[in-house]
Design goal:
Elements (H helix, E strand, L loop, with lengths): L1 H18 L2 H13 L4 H6 L9 H9 L1 H17 L7 H36 L2 H7 L6 E4 L5 E3 L9 E5 L2 E6 L2 E6 L4 E4 L8 E6 L4 E6 L2 H20 L15 E7 L10 E7 L2 E9 L5 E7 L2 E11 L6 E9 L2 E9 L5 E7 L2 E10 L8 E8 L2 E10 L4 E8 L2 E10 L4 E7 L2 E9 L5 E8 L2 E9 L5 E9 L5 E7 L8 H5 L13 H10 L10 H21 L7 H11 L11 H15 L5 H17 L9 H22 L17 H10 L14 H24 L1 H14 L11 H5 L7 H20 L10 H15 L4 H11 L8 H17 L5
Antiparallel strand pairs: 1-3, 2-8, 3-4, 4-5, 6-7, 7-8, 9-10, 10-11, 11-12, 12-13, 13-14, 14-15, 15-16, 16-17, 17-18, 18-19, 19-20, 20-21, 21-22, 22-23, 23-24, 24-25, 25-26, 26-27
Helix pairs in contact: 1-6, 2-4, 5-6, 10-14, 11-12, 13-14, 14-17, 15-17, 17-22, 18-23, 20-22, 20-23, 21-23, 22-23
GO molecular function, one term: guanyl-nucleotide exchange factor activity
Pfam family, one: VPS9
InterPro entries: Alsin, Alsin-like_PH, HA_Alsin, MORN, PH-like_dom_sf, VPS9, VPS9_dom_sf
Length: 840
């Protein structure tokens, strides 16, 4: 192989020298060297021709080694006669002879191609020779005989097409354009309708039609172009045997655009399909911009990475995410040169949909975080803005980057405001509370500035009613009346009024749910086809798995891959009557789907957890937000349940019943025992959003939610804990065996799990007491309450008041009046009893 490569390299070098006119330029120096005796040069060249030009004689001399290849082949044939025909040595000599003959024939063709190209350049107009003439470029065919013309060309126009081994040249008068073969596609045009012998040529920036003078000429050009394209792609030499009929329509190539307005002077390297970038590739612009990712029909489409140098800063903007038709579209992350970071949805190169923008850092002058809805690159809709510098958090409506509509502000100093905003200011009716419960309800004109009619209520219940002016905390001017209410007047209504001027829970994060519906193929909530939704889920999961497989930095664990594969299959239980078995299958599917961020429900869950924590952590951990936090969770449950019932249309609506699997009382009893892990005492009978979804959602939201409960119940829990510590100083170890059970009420998340712990505690107490009494003893609540009170006391459950409030607010309505409801009422009574217990 190596000697053949050396011969081919030598022949190629001589051919390149010939094409560039090197031997013609070498004629004069050679004449000076050999003097006036060219006979010596003729003898060296082993040429017998007379009056041969010196340049041709030099060509013959340099090609002389190729003539010896035939002699080598004949020599091997003679050596073969010394061996038996059936011997291995004879066969090797025959193979060697064949290779020398094939090599000689191949190099002879290369010489003809070089000579043909050299004679072409001698006749080619001199102005374009310098730019088109290259050492390795060989002529294949050209249309100077008018065999090929441009369709729809002018009457007096001149169009000359020249096919080289690396490019197709279109020459017109003194101008020409070069089409690289690696990015050239040719298609024959059917002749039935037009009667013309046409060829359609496609390049990245131009498509034109050539007309041949005959069908034979058309076939010749079609074959020549296809072979030249294929050889240019594979690197094979011309006129090789076994050529494909036509080169692949999809290929990998590099191209520099010259007139496309969007890609002018940019270089693309990657996959192509019929003249358009299609598949994975990379574009580099002269100004430093770089896009690496997938293309479709010539435009960025799919997942891609885009780097753009900043014109003012010595840093880059960096976008990583999804594209559609050449624009940022879908989920992505944009790191700005200024230091800002946006994570969320894009549309038409603009922030549009749900997203989070982080501005600055903790050490910068104005760090802040916004999470919420964007419309055409501006904050519009519901969103939460955390101004870290000022220690304020705003939760409300926006319009064109300004606070507009209803909203809530809490500060690190304990101030709370809910009400109207206009032009980015507190303007209109609102309610303001300070840390000591001083309350103002009335008109505002600026941030924290009272201006108009209102009521100012003191912590002790006294209040002013009239007109107020001035900034809160800097002195107020009051014109009005002072009232001191009756001792027996209730002020409970004032506390319950909080939240009525805030954004309703069902209006919060609407865009998050809308995006989830869109991923299912629905233009609006509930408006779409069930089968299409499942197909969209399967496609999204399969596409995401391929992206993660192709990106080593995004690899999934083996467990996640198995879960992803199982979710790709459309579950059979999404249609047909829902039985207890199907209900349990649906529940298990939802658990897996919500744990997988690549699933639409999993992404929804991940986003809801992020926005909830963003709202109620940090400055948002304000006890006055507890009711809104609880209502927000209930709103999540209702809206997610709507999605679930869309995917599983036969699932009963909220409060609906599922038929029991058997009418036998014993079977019912066994069924209830087997399903104690489900989220209601009788999971097979009542369907509710809290029973189905709270076990998935609440553990993720538990830390910020319980913090709010602890802040709200702080005073009561302090009194309770003081009583617990005091009462526990009285030694008694008789019932210590029960204490471990009830203690676990604080280690569970959902109300149903906490109620299950309470039920187990009751069962343990009953079992222990009944072992010491007669079997026919009737266990009444009057007897049970003191014992249970003692167990709760000895268990020393921290923040029991917060636990009780959480259970009460989020308890499944279907169990409130059953056995679990009675047990919860008993626990609640124990809590209040301990607070008021007196000891001597």
């Amino acid at each position: 192989v190596y000697p053949c490569f050396s011969w081919a390299t030598y022949c190629c070098s001589v051919g390149n020298f010939l094409v560039m006119g090197g031997f013609q330029a070498l004629a004069k120096p050679s004449l000076e060297f050999f003097g006036k005796c060219p006979e010596l040069l003729q003898r060296l060249a082993e040429s017998s021709e007379e009056n041969i030009p010196l340049s041709d004689l030099l060509v013959t001399l340099f090609y002389l080694p190729m003539r010896h290849l035939h002699e080598y082949g004949r020599l091997l044939l003679k050596l073969g006669t010394c061996f038996e025909v059936s011997s291995v040595d004879y066969q090797k000599l025959q193979d060697g002879c064949s290779k020398f003959e094939a090599l000689a024939l191949h190099l002879k063709r290369r010489r003809k191609e070089a000579e043909y190209t050299y004679h072409f350049w001698k006749s080619f107009p001199g102005k374009m020779t310098d730019s088109l003439r290259k050492p390795r470029r060989r002529l294949i065919c050209e249309s100077s005989n008018k065999a090929l013309t441009l369709q729809n060309s002018g009457r007096f126009s001149v169009n000359w097409f020249i096919l080289f081994n690396d490019a197709l040249v279109h020459a017109q008068f003194s101008t020409h354009h070069v089409f690289p073969l690696a990015t050239l596609w040719v298609e024959p045009i059917p002749e039935e309708n037009t009667g013309l012998h046409g060829l359609k040529l496609i390049s990245p920036e131009e498509t034109f039609t050539l007309l041949a003078c005959s069908s034979m000429e058309k076939a010749k050009w079609l074959r020549s172009i296809n072979q030249a394209v294929d050889q240019a792609m594979t690197g094979a030499g011309q006129s090789g045997a076994g050529q494909r009929v036509e080169p692949p329509i999809s290929r990998t190539a590099s191209y520099t655009f010259y007139k496309d307005s969007r890609l002018k002077e940019a270089t693309y390297e990657g996959r192509w399909l019929a003249g358009k970038p299609n598949g994975r590739g990379m574009v580099k612009w002269l100004d430093g911009r770089i896009y690496t990712g997938t293309f479709k029909n010539g435009l960025e489409d799919g997942f891609g990475d885009y780097v753009m140098p900043s014109k003012t800063l010595n840093l880059n903007d960096h976008y990583q995410g999804h594209w559609k038709e050449g624009k940022m579209h879908g989920i992505g992350t944009y790191k700005y040169a200024t230091g800002e970071l946006y994570e969320g949805s894009f549309q038409d190169n603009m922030r549009h949909g749900h997203g989070m923008l982080r501005s600055g850092t903790l050490n910068s002058s104005s760090p802040s975080v916004f999470i919420g809805q964007w419309v055409h690159d501006k904050k519009t809709g519901y969103g939460v803005f955390d101004d870290i510098t000022r220690g304020e958090k705003y939760m409300g409506m926006w319009q064109d980057d300004q606070r507009q509509g209803t909203g809530v502000i809490v500060t690190q100093f304990g101030l709370y405001y809910e009400g109207a905003f206009n032009n980015n200011k507190m303007q209109g009716t609102g309610v303001l509370l300070s840390e000591d419960n001083t309350t103002y309800e009335g008109e505002f004109s600026e941030d924290w500035t009272l201006n108009g009619k209102g009521v100012l209520t003191m912590p002790n219940g006294d209040y002013f009613e009239g007109s107020f002016t001035g900034e809160w905390g800097s002195g107020l001017k009051v014109t009005g009346s002072f009232f001191k209410p009756n001792l027996y007047d209730s002020d409970g209504d004032k506390g319950r009024a909080l939240g009525r001027l805030a954004v309703p829970p069902e209006e919060k994060w609407r865009v998050v749910f809308e995006e989830c519906w869109m991923r299912l193929g629905c233009e609006a909530p509930g408006q779409g086809e069930n089968q299409r939704a499942w197909e969209n889920i399967a496609v999204a999961l399969t596409t995401s798995r391929r992206q993660h497989r192709d990106s080593p930095e995004m690899n999934l664990s083996r467990t996640q891959n198995r879960m992803l594969e199982s979710l790709e299959f459309i579950p059979q239980q999404h249609v047909g009557p829902v039985t207890m078995e199907k209900y349990d299958s649906i529940r298990r599917y939802l658990i897996k789907a919500c744990d997988m961020p690549l699933h639409p429900l999993g992404r929804l869950m991940e986003t809801l957890v992020a926005v909830y924590r963003m709202t109620y952590v940090g400055v948002g951990a304000n006890r006055r937000l507890l009711l809104q936090a609880v209502n927000e969770i209930m709103s999540y449950l209702a809206r997610i349940f709507q999605l679930v019932r869309f995917l599983f249309p036969d699932l009963p609506e909220e409060g609906g019943a599922i038929p029991e699997p058997s009418s036998d009382p014993q079977d019912k009893k066994d069924s209830n025992c087997a399903d104690t892990q489900l989220e209601s005492p009788k999971p097979g009978r009542v369907v509710s959003s809290s029973a189905l979804l709270l076990p998935v959602l609440l553990p993720r939201l538990y830390p910020p939610l319980f913090t709010l409960y602890a802040l709200e119940k702080e005073k009561e829990d302090d009194v309770y804990w003081e009583c617990v510590l005091r009462l526990n100083k009285q030694p008694d170890v008789a019932l210590l065996a029960f204490l471990g059970t009830v203690f676990f009420v604080s280690t569970t998340f959902t109300p149903s799990d906490k109620l299950q712990v309470i039920q187990l505690t009751f069962e343990e107490i009953t079992k222990e007491v009944m072992s010491s009494l007669e079997d026919n003893f009737l266990w009444s609540m009057d007897d049970l309450f003191p014992v249970f009170l003692y167990v709760v006391l000895r268990a020393r459950i921290r923040n029991l008041g917060s636990e009780v409030s959480l259970i009460e607010d989020l308890m499944d309505p279907c169990v409130q009046h059953g056995e679990h409801g009675i047990m919860f009422t008993t626990l609640k009574a124990c809590y209040y009893q301990i607070q008021h217990e007196k000891t001597t």
